[in-house]
Amino acid sequence: MPTHSVDTIERNVHKVNEWLADLAEELGTDDREMAWRVLRAHLQVLRDRLTIDEAAQLAAQLPHLLRGVMYEGFDPGHQPEKIRDRDAFLARLAERAVLPDGTDPARAATAATRVLRRHVTPGELDDVLGQLPDEIRQVLEHG
Predict the structure, then answer these.
(1) pTM for the full model?
(2) Cβ(36)–Cβ(65) under 8 Å?
(3) 47, 105, 131, 140: which has the fewest C-beta neighbours closer than 10 Å?
(4) pLDDT tens figures, 76-89
(5) Which residue pairs from 25-29 have beta carbons closer than 8 angstroms and sit at least 24 positions apart in sequence?
């Protein structure tokens, strides 16, 4: 969706707010700030683990605002990162999302993946998940 007008920008913000409402509901919270931090962290940790091409294909399906967030701090010289196990992936997510003590990063990752599944094409999310090691894919899909 090209951003040729203010209406386009407003629609984009509206879409992002829908994503945040979905994620807050999945997380069982009214804390939109936490939902924002989880979504941001999830997109960035995925981006860092994917090939540049796959990350770009995922980003192309995101609202412009989320696409910018996904690429914030992006370093193509370090793609993909060698995060191979569940614990390392979840630790990176928890750190980037600044999750409060007692918050389960696996639950946050699963919730964010459910939101992605609702808002991007099924084939794209399957491609993204297909690039991940089994134990990371399992936590994203099932907690």
Answers:
(1) 0.91
(2) no
(3) 131
(4) 887 777 888 999 99
(5) 26/111, 26/112, 26/114, 26/115, 27/107, 27/108, 27/111
